[in-house]
Amino acid sequence: MSAAPTVEWGGGTPPPAFHALDPADPTAPGPDAEWAVTYAGDRPVARLATYVRHDLVGAPGETGLVGHYAATDPDAAVELLRDATARLLAAGARRVLGPMNGTTWGRYRFAIIEPSGDTSAPPFLGEPVNPADYPAHFARAGFRETARYESRITRDIAAENPRAVAAEATARARGITIAPIDLARFEEELRDLHQFSIRAFAANLYYSPIGAEEFAAMYRPMRALLDPAMVLLARDADASLIGYAFAYADPLALEEGRPHRLIVKTLAVDPAWRSIGLGALLVERLHAAARGAGLSVVIHALMHVANDSMKISAHTARLFRRYALYEYP
Questions:
Q1: Mean pLDDT, the chain, as a whole number?
Q2: pTM surpassing 0.90?
Q3: Are 103 and 235 part of one and the same domain?
Q4: Residue 29 sits in a domain of what CATH number?
């Protein structure tokens, strides 16, 4: 008869077994996290890390987070999730969200793997990747879906969006300019993008701010991937940033050795300017840039189903993949 699984909890740097469960995800828990590894004998079979956050958008009070999740034994994983949830609630959390690696700026959500159409296509760079049964682990541990997201795909990247056509004239009349990011001033551009993002995302569900250096550290590794024509910055007549679209050619999807998919990672518009259709205009410009670069597909990535970006995407795009975030109780 085999011995019951054992659980090791700790803080700081986790043991090598933590990373061995998912070598494809080298992300380490933050310094404020507690990590746990479940062992069957000396073999790791489940892992996670927990955080406590205060007053996330839409979640007042203390919120526990479960992230860095990986498992090869569903039963042991469910028990570990129950243990983690009980510890967070006992520490004062009013709810537990997962999977979330400490913040919505990092890795979070599960992909919902469906067997048909584009939803079974290979993942794009930056997309959540997980075994199909991970959502069921959370459901068995008592979690329920609390937020749903979608990526949408369009192959008709020459289709004209009437909203963008009207926005073009309005933007011109109001002195708005749209220009590519200046890679020669990359660090300065990142500072501007950080300051703007803090304002633009402030109402997003479960949002919490991060510092300028942490923001820059997320984007610096992407610099080599960037085509300036795919990162567009909109400024008003006073040269203040009022919106941006951040996209890149997907190195994970090649045809004849070249990328053929454009991934629209981020679309952000100042709330004061959303009514003129600036978001639609930015997306239209990205589609034109994709055509000019010889790309044939655009994926509008990881949108909350209630976001305005879904309305823009709905013009020509259809479902690529769904994702979910879970909450206990």
A1: 94
A2: yes
A3: no
A4: 3.40.630.30
